[in-house]
Amino acid sequence: MHLTALAGGVGGARFIRGLLHHLRSRDDGPHTLTIIGNTGDDITLFGLRICPDLDTLMYTLGGGIHEGQGWGRVDESFTIQKELAAYGASPQWFGLGDKDFGTHIVRSQWLGQGQTLSEVVARLAQRWGLPDQGVTLLPMTDTPVETHVVVEQDGEQRAIHFQEWWVRHQASIPAQRFVVAGMNHATAAPGVLDAIRQADLVILPPSNPVVSIGIVLSVPGVREALRGTTAPVIGVCPLVGGAPVRGHADACLDAIGVPVTPDGVAGLYADFLDGWLVDKADESSVTASDLAVRAVPLLMSDLEATADMASAAVELGLELRR
Ligand code: GDP
Ligand code: CA
């Protein structure tokens, strides 16, 4: 089977690690997986291009992630960041470790030599053994795009970079809306639309529905490909007990006027979603009638629990394919 998943950072990466664990345990393999990663979080700092969600996916699947944090490298040191601080260089609110800097330096070098982001991601992913696991990691687009958040500060409307809102302000300033700078002239990266059209199964992991999955969906052609694919599209709800498990998905949903409920999130995918996994605790709240809904435990507490979630998503997909 060929599977395709859309993904943000930590939630997407942890789920996909469980999905790969599950796929390896099946006796109908081998299976392959294409991941379409969000690049709306990307930012240029200290002259370096940083792709937080793609790196979280790569480090998590390649065994280099800081498990407790969910992002960044394990056994990290911060010498470069301290040196930058000594010069008064800003920003200081975005944590960048020394090993992580290595990734950003080599990516910026290759981009500077004229390679596309897709080409660069493919080279980086080699080192982390993704192709050996049957995984192709694609950025959603090669066009530089950046999610900005419109906020009101001191009586004035301002657009700030998503990372400034999320990391520096911890999403504490009410967002009025999200805009993706550069998206008006962006095109899907090579392979993205075909990966959706030609998949046997498409999965939406429990990534942030607004600023991760929502941004991937705004790439021209992606929604149409999801509507047109013959593959079942299965979503995994990022809410457990009516609240996000981590991060500020509630603030993001509030900003776009969508209820913080499994129904609210499913509504964002209504034009293409076939199956919806919700947590047992949320089962009674779900009213969507034109969807195949299954309630299973949705806490990614360890690899086995996550693989069980992935197994439920794959089984639901196979049922709907028949
Ligand atoms: P980010 O880019 O690092 O913010 O990560 P994602 O967008 O991929 O995922 C963030 C989402 O993952 C949040 O909305 C969380 O609610 C969700 N999430 C994190 N851990 C879990 C979990 O154990 N279970 C479920 N169902 N969702 C989770
Ligand atoms: Ca992200």
Automatic annotation (TrEMBL):
UniProt cross-references to PANTHER family, sorted A to Z: 2-PHOSPHO-L-LACTATE TRANSFERASE
SUPFAM superfamilies listed in its UniProt record: CofD-like (SSF142338)
Name of the protein this chain belongs to: LPPG:FO 2-phospho-L-lactate transferase
InterPro entries: CofD (IPR002882), CofD-like_dom_sf (IPR038136), FbiA/CofD (IPR010115)
Pfam families named among the record's database cross-references: CofD (PF01933)
Protein's UniProt keywords contain Cell cycle: no
UniProt GO molecular function: LPPG:FO 2-phospho-L-lactate transferase activity; magnesium ion binding
Keywords annotated in UniProt: Magnesium, Transferase
